[in-house]
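Moderator note: this is an archived Q&A kept for reference. The question asked for a predicted structure of one protein chain; the sequence and the answer are reproduced below.
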Amino acid sequence: MARSERGVATASVGRDESVSAPPGDCRFLLPTLPSDEGVRFCVFLHGDTSKRPYRIEDFRQPLEDAGVLKDISCIAAYQMSHLWLVRFRTQGVKDAVLAAGGLSVKGGYCAIIDPCRKEMKVKIHWVPFHIPSETLRKALSEFGEAMEIRQEE
């Protein structure tokens, strides 16, 4: 399965700290997402795969709590019921929901992904400690610019 180059968990700013950042065991299963003009007012909602299946009713209350329910022009399942496409009426509404950072749907974390954003945060496991950051930066350069490289303590 292809993974999206544009899939991003958005900034961790939200009303409820428990949903503003993904839990450590959160898995993202993303196809390549469209990024053309047709998705300018859209976001993808990526639900916790262990909580599948999702129904449209599961998103009603979280979107109402975010204050954007009335400004949605359409919502539809995009992939295997855990990835949903939401189209808003204006860019301002899209920006407001992106600022939420995440939603709580069916008691699990639901990431809000902007398909137009072209950066992502990646965690790479099993890199030997003696490998310098510059070597990693060069290895990742074919995929784009590495903005930050840091080692966990």
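Archived answer notes: Residues 10 and 108 are 16 Å apart (CA to CA).
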